[in-house]
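FAQ: What does the model actually see?

It sees only this:
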Amino acid sequence: MAVFELTKLTFSSDLQAVATRGSKWILGVFVVLALAMGMLSSTLFDKVQGGGYSDPGGEASRATEILRDTFGQAPPNLVLLVHSGTSVDDPDAATAAVKLALKLKDEPGVAGVMSYWMDKSPALRSDDGKSGLIVASILGEEGEVDQKVGGLADRYGGTHGQVEVRVGGYAMLLHETVKQSEKDAALGESIAFPITLVALLFVFGGLVAASLPLVVAAVTVMITMGALWLITLVTDLAATATNVATLLGLGLAIDYSLLIISRYRDELAAGAPTGPAVAATMRSAGRTVAFSAITVAVALSGLLFFPLLAVRSMGYAGLAVAVIAATVSLTVLPAILLLLGSRIDRGQLGWFFRPQRPAPGEGFWHRLAVFVMRKPMPIGLAVAAFLLLLGTPFLGVKLGFPDQRALPESMNNRQVTEIIQRDFTATETNGLFVVLPDGKAGLDAYARKLSEVENVRRVDAATGSYAHGGQLVAGTAQHAHFETKDAAYLSVTPDTSDPGLLDRVAKDLRAVPAPSQRLVGGTAAASADSLDAVTSALPVALAYVVIIMVIVLFLLTGSVVLPLVAIVLSALSLTATFGALVWIFQDGHLSGLLDFTVTGDLPPTVPVMLFGVAFGLAMDYQVFLLSRILEEYERTGKNDSAVAHGLEKIGRIVTAAAVLISLVFLGFLASDITFMKSFGIGLPLAVLVDATLVRGFLLPAVMKLLGDWNWWAPGPLEKLHERFGFDEGPSVPTALPDPDDLRQPTRV
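And it is asked to produce this:
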């Protein structure tokens, strides 16, 4: 609170002393808070879970709940690959395998245990006869399954008598995703921090100034990770959100610090003492940071409209990051600046790291803005057409949910899955099921119809097992567990492991008329439900984000035109990102360089989550720009010169911020999870396109074409803005000549 009060006061020596003491208290409180939250976060990865790609309200999820609660069953999600050096039919190997299967059957929370040795299913025996499968289901929610599978993997993996056991299955996929996310978060930080420090040295030219953004970033990340730990106490959280929270927190903290430190140094250079310089900085850059954080928070809060945990978790993490990064930047950093004073420029490393700033009107961004505003229509149309061209690959997007191929080839579950696909005919682990919760009438005929669906190998029911075509292949005794007094379920075994064909099977099963209410479940059915959930929630989320953004930017600018311009331009800046996603990660270009396996599709959650983060950052930079342009417009009343001088003053800082946050986001490329790598490409590309083509060309072109209409609002809204709008107040005056008339020749 003490720091915010600085914005309203004229400093005396007594007030300076009070503010200095208050700054020490602020720093002390945040040091303690960061350490405490950092300690809490040490167990964060024990509380998060893998997956989060299923719709909890979807048909497949409801079918899974009924299957678990009514029948004590679950879709197969655990596989033990049992390998013998000789043959799985060898007596010693068979004895060891049967012991494992019986032991697994007695594990609490484990059901539906099948094995080659007990069920005599040829599909559970490898083609070479040296390996066999034990398939089971771990009961519970995804978080509970993740906790159980780790212990089971430790107990059952390894050597058991004459056999060697490896653990796989969907439960293991989720477990290894959590472990990989933990490694990726640590690796991303270790890469981003030193690279960012070097880049900051080039921006600020001195060790003291360059180290401050990293101090703010470290405090932000520690508090954010602790906040995520607290969030897990009230709701589930997906593991992948931790990676985004770490690097986004680092990037936003550096961006906000860069803006505040640069403005503070400008105030010092204009001759202001330390206290008034900090106060002026907080009035201008400080409030800009607050509005920027609001735009990021709004964009990411739009992810909360999606029911998928992986997407919602990104919304929770993004909200926490935006609020914490802004809070730390607006408290810790001003407190440090008050204590440092002019010593912020100590540790200079020479003129090479800090080039001299050009005289007013001679800077690159000023000259570029003037050049664009001379021919705004052709330049604007050319740049817009180029961005749309870069986005054309997205027209061919194919959506599908990630499988084991999203993990590195070294991962145990991926290896087990690929061995099964190569050496076995078993498809039990890809099984679907149909729950009939309201009755059993007509079950026999219905099961026969389901068995006739293309790519269905067998349907198991209480009335027997039906091979493809409706042929009865087994009696009823061994299948009595498929029904209760009031309900029944059918197990559907496909004859394929191809994800595309499995999706088709799930759709065809749902199209078969049922004698009563039916629910189709299984991984393929859950993927279809999740895709429907994403597409259904998208319009509502977009409408929410756009409406709130318009309101926030209206409060900032007092215009109803500029908010719409900012939203359109920010959205346009994402076209290259979405085009690159398809071209690289779906079509497979650069897969060798980036080291990932091409699957031929994109998880639908990736474009959604990327849009939330990238659009928030694009709007973040729009706030930076519009705030400075607005300041110039209020000073001069001239639209064109306000654009040129505003870009001149903020251009270098926004460019530096874009480069720095892009370097931070490149840390995502260190991840071994394919869809996390997409953030390492998509986010830097979106930021750099926004910082160059949009800010350098499109924004000046559009603002030139609109002229004074940029600042228009109806009379009632003008009065509303006068009462509730954003007003920076005066800064310490900076010596600037009167703006040049942009109609006069200017050196480019």
